[in-house]
Write a structure and sequence with these properties.
extended; two-stranded antiparallel sheet; alpha+beta
């Protein structure tokens, strides 16, 4: 799909970020049983969502000042921490690392190989679509 002159991937269309940003536009909707929009700026550039049905214990844990990691006690600048209830999920996560990070000690060549293959494949698909669009445009112009 082309939007604002950019070719967007199917992964983007399926992503949570796309759904939250585009909620109510172009036929995109967010699951109302999971998210509720609580604020939208005048032109829709800023949106704030509430997670519906969040665990009460986790909310209380996050609200407790002793669970905040601040640069100085009582500061307004505090790094975020996730509640213990999410630890099992977070332990399964694979942390994003830039491919060009030469300071890393370990390598993940299999991951990098798969990533680069996907980038190449998506680029080829995008180029194929652009070529087809150019051919279609030439055909339309020649018919005029």
């Amino acid at each position: 799909m082309v939007e604002h002159g950019f070719m967007l991937s199917p992964k983007w269309h399926a992503s949570l970020v796309n759904h939250l940003v585009s909620n109510g536009m172009r036929g995109v909707t967010v699951d109302p049983e999971k998210f509720r929009e609580v604020f939208r700026s005048k032109y829709g550039k800023v949106r704030v969502y509430e997670i519906v049905g969040a665990d009460k214990e986790s909310k209380a844990w996050c609200a407790d000042p002793k669970n905040r990691i601040c640069d100085v006690p009582g500061s307004w600048f505090c790094r975020g921490q996730y509640p213990p209830a999410l630890q099992e999920v977070l332990n399964k996560a694979k942390t994003f690392v830039q491919l060009e990070d030469f300071n890393r000690k370990e390598e993940d060549s299999e991951y990098q190989k798969l990533y680069m293959e996907n980038v190449k494949r998506e680029g080829e698909e995008r180029e194929s679509i652009y070529k087809k669009q150019r051919i279609d445009q030439r055909t339309i112009k020649s018919d005029l």
